[in-house]
Write a structure and sequence with these properties.
Length: 153
Amino acid sequence: MKILVLTLILFPMLSFANPHSDSKVSLLKEYARYITTLNVNNVTDMGPSFLSEDALKETDFSNDFEISGLLFHREIQKTVSVFERIEYEKGYGCLTVNGFVDQNKPISMFFQYTQLDSPKINEIRLEYLEESVAHPHYAKCPHEAEQDFFESK
């Protein structure tokens, strides 16, 4: 009986010990919302809902080419794997989306999300991989993918 009582007393305390227990962030859900919501017709109005001010600060919204660049998710024809990592203490998260352009051309997209209470894409890196190069099997932020790219050269 003492064990049961102790468990019942500790369980509520443990749920308060993790400040993120009730607000689990899912970068994959945010990415899915982004790719199903944004399109050519609404990217100017809806872009700020998904992309941080830093990500948008250089964007010329009167330039169709730059606007279409905000729809980078259209590069992937087929998604094969997705990995995410949240760094609550550092205030950001990383999402890696692996897939293919056309039939056999592998691509990996790396995202850094900030403002974790309402996640926004802050940085993006696209890598068109050689056919012999395997997709990464864990979440990387764009700066980590860039570092790995240059270290492999």
